[in-house]
């Protein structure tokens, strides 16, 4: 049975709620990349979304679900960057304060983005436990509404709107590839995509150095956490019980890629599509380029999730 708080209906409602507050992002094709893959590749460019990442969808939906009374003390979250910037932007649209807990080793570009959108950054040690503890303290002290970066049905439903758009732009996809970290994107997109196209093969991809989703998927239960070690900072989060259950029911497979493959994919996308994507965004294409998946002859959608890169520290 599908988790009751995320459904095609909740995702369709999210799309109506955020309409006019986020961008309809384009789908790019490239003949050279098609030839290399032996497939038709369709890149859904959420790197061109508001705030430079898909996170604008979920954060905007969550904030606009709340009443003025619920927002009286603003919002709080913890984030490696993109959700923080998206929540700060959404809070600004509602005229309320956003407090964003971020690790001290966050990307300078992502720290700057959160502050640009008016977020009050609170730095902590670079562990999930430290992030959660400081966010909980801020909520207790302020009475602000907590918006989890991915373990929130409103956020998940907002991320799922990507599937609604993509399947209108390219209706006859055979495969859909996307990255997985905490699972908000993967679970929301999977619910919508499988409801609309049950035969679609949906594969989530994650870094080998942060492989809790693959281990959980293989075991059929949430796997023990390991300290993440990957360049893909946006995919260091761990699945929640909610996102794991949705992924377990709707995703067909999970594969991993090395950091070397991720960097090569970033470079290839820059050379061929003429766009800069962050490491987390390049992960699904890395699985194609590194031949971790055989997509030959198929029509393949690939979600590029974000483009917030520190240009002074590109990994090549």
Structure summarized in a few sentences:
With 316 residues, the protein is an alpha/beta fold. 44% of the residues lie in helices and 15% in strands.
Question: Could you walk me through the main structural features you see in this protein, from its secondary elements to its overall organization?
Answer:
The chain is an alpha/beta fold. The chain is globular, with a radius of gyration of 18 Å. The longest helix has 17 residues, at 153-169. The chain is built from twelve helices and ten strands. It has a six-stranded mixed beta sheet, sandwiched between helices. α7 (153-169) crosses α8 and α8 (184-196) runs parallel beside α10 (241-250).
Key terms:
316 residues; alpha/beta; 4-stranded parallel β-sheet; 10 strands
């Amino acid at each position: 049975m599908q988790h009751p708080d995320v459904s095609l209906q909740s995702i369709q409602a999210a799309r109506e709620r955020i309409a006019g507050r986020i961008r309809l992002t384009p789908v790019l094709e490239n003949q050279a990349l098609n030839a290399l893959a032996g497939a038709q590749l369709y890149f859904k460019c959420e790197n061109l979304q508001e705030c430079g990442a898909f996170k604008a969808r979920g954060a905007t939906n969550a904030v606009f679900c709340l009443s003025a009374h619920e927002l009286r003390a603003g919002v709080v979250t913890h984030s490696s960057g993109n959700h923080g910037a998206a929540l700060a932007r959404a809070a600004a649209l509602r005229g309320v304060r956003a407090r964003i807990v971020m690790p001290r080793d966050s990307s300078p570009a992502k720290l700057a983005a959160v502050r640009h959108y008016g977020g009050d950054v609170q730095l902590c040690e670079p562990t999930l436990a430290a992030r959660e503890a400081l966010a909980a303290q801020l909520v207790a002290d302020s009475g602000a509404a907590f918006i989890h970066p991915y373990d929130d049905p409103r956020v998940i439903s907002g991320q799922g709107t990507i599937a609604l758009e993509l399947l209108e732009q390219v209706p006859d996809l055979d495969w859909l590839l996307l990255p997985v970290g905490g699972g908000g994107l993967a679970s929301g997109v999977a619910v919508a995509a499988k409801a609309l196209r049950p035969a679609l093969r949906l594969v989530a991809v994650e870094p080998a150095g942060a492989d809790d989703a693959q281990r959980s998927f293989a075991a059929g239960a949430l796997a023990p956490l390991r300290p993440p070690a990957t360049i893909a900072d946006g995919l260091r989060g761990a699945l929640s019980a909610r996102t794991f259950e949705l992924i377990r029911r709707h995703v067909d497979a999970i594969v991993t890629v090395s950091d070397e493959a991720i960097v090569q994919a970033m470079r290839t996308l820059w050379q061929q599509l003429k766009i800069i994507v962050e490491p987390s965004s390049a992960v699904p294409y890395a699985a194609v380029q590194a031949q971790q998946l055989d997509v030959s002859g198929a029509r393949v959608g690939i979600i590029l999730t974000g483009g917030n890169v520190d240009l002074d520290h590109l990994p090549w």
